[in-house]
Specification:
This protein is mainly alpha-helical. It contains 23 helices and two strands. Helix content is about 70%, strand content about 0%. It has a two-stranded antiparallel ribbon. A hairpin with a 6-residue loop joins strand 1 and strand 2. The longest helix is centred in the middle third of the chain and has 21 residues. The two termini are about 40 Å apart.
Length: about 425
């Protein structure tokens, strides 16, 4: 979800310029520097877009393409700008031009096919997927029947019919370059079979991709496409119950098969990352009726009890539906050793306020500010609570004093809620 920018654009541009200067090396060529700084450029383009400076976002992409004409990520970045702010014809033109220059980029052909599908142009989408497979081979002098299914099978190391003679690769393509395109070759093959009406073959291709790819990130990408494929089929199925059951089983398989524990890059030990799992949960829960979502959240939390963000989602859903009993039950299941999370504390406090338990709220704020001593939002909530419910000026001043001792500046906030700041705010 994209958010608007609150920091002045000129200030952000200055920071980007400083970051780009710091990350650019005089010993590297322009193309290498562009690749090194690509994450910064992505964020710069995003900042320009959400600031309604679309022409500036386009200008950044075009300057980068001039410096690094062979960069597929930059072509896709420009296509994204056009897709969100231009016309569908502009997006198609960008992707077609890029795909013609980078014939063996399976990712560009995949993006082009998806773009055609958003316009309802299935034939052109199929054409892009067929062209992708053909671009790897020398087909001019061959008399064989080189169907796109056979070409993709050859590229992906899958069985081909007996007696079939595969064509040779075009100049510049070898096994190493083909291996580098495996992710989007699998996705293109699965999409091709789906558009041709072979739903069984498409599902088998997704299954094969999940088992064949070795990169965690690549497997995650395939799982998301596979789940979206099943979701679209379940929405069109006349038997909604059976389709949802199949999707639930596939979702559970995905969640239990993907890792959440990863080694730290710059220190010893491990860390847990549930971001992919939460995207999968959001996808599945989004297809359920509102009355079925609470049970789904509870089931997923039993599978992932240490998933703080999932617990937060489940609690927010419980509050949204007015199911305070479920909210209490969910809070009771959150392990005590969870990483401190402002959202969980806020919901816990809200529940105590709903119960009218002011003394418990006081204890919760004291505990929360010990665990999150530098969180300004938490201190502001604590101060406002004491001002409204506390009734004792010395206790309010004590909270403000502790806030100041932690080095958290809330003077502007105090000025907004009090005509003159309490004396302890000046300590």
């Amino acid at each position: 979800e994209e958010r608007s920018v609150t920091t002045p654009r000129e200030s952000l541009l200055s920071h980007f310029q400083d970051a780009l200067r710091s990350c650019t090396s005089k010993t590297l060529a322009a193309q290498e520097n562009t690749q090194v700084c690509l994450p910064l450029y992505r964020n710069l383009v995003l900042m320009e877009r959400v600031s309604d400076k679309v022409s500036s976002a386009r200008g950044v992409c075009k300057r980068l393409l001039k410096a690094c004409p062979g960069s597929v990520p930059i072509c896709l970045l420009l296509a994204e700008v056009e897709a969100r702010h231009g016309t569908s014809q502009d997006t198609v033109k960008v992707l077609q031009d890029a795909a013609s220059r980078h014939g063996q980029s399976a990712e560009l052909h995949h993006a082009l096919a998806k773009c055609f599908l958003t316009q309802g142009d299935t034939d052109s989408a199929l054409g892009a997927l067929v062209t992708c497979a053909q671009a790897f081979f020398n087909l001019e002098d061959s008399t064989e029947d080189h169907t796109p299914q056979r070409l993709y099978s050859k590229l992906l190391g899958q069985p081909v019919p007996l007696g079939y003679t595969s064509p040779s690769y075009v100049e510049g393509v070898d096994h190493t370059s083909v291996r580098g395109e495996q992710l989007y070759l699998w996705l293109n093959y699965s999409l091709l079979l789906d558009l041709q009406g072979d739903s069984v073959g498409s599902a088998e291709a997704y299954e094969s991709a999940v088992c064949s790819l070795t990169s965690t990130r690549d497997v995650q990408t395939v799982w998301m496409e596979y789940l979206k494929y099943h979701l679209s089929r379940s929405q069109a199925s006349p038997d909604k119950m059976a389709a949802t059951k199949t999707l639930r089983e596939l979702t559970n398989r995905c969640l239990v098969s993907m890792p959440t524990r990863f080694p730290r890059q710059h220190s010893q030990g491990h860390w847990h990352d549930y971001s992919f799992h939460n995207k999968v949960v959001d996808l599945f829960v989004g297809c359920l009726e509102k009355g079925e979502r609470s049970a789904a959240y509870e089931n997923f939390l039993r599978m992932m009890p240490n998933n703080v963000n999932l617990a937060l989602r489940a609690l927010e859903h419980a509050f949204t539906t007015g199911d305070l009993q479920l909210a209490r039950s969910l809070l009771a299941t959150v392990p005590a050793g969870q990483p401190p999370c402002l959202g969980l504390w806020q919901l816990t406090v809200h529940l105590a306020l709903q119960d009218g338990n002011v003394n418990k709220v006081c204890r919760l704020y004291r505990q929360a500010t010990r665990l999150l001593p530098h969180h300004a939002t938490l201190w502001k909530d604590y101060i406002l609570f004491e001002a409204v419910y506390g009734g004792k000026e010395d206790r309010l001043n004590g909270v403000i004093s502790r806030c100041n001792q932690r080095g958290v500046n809330v003077d502007e906030y105090l000025s907004a809620i009090f005509k003159s700041p309490p004396p302890s705010s000046k300590l």
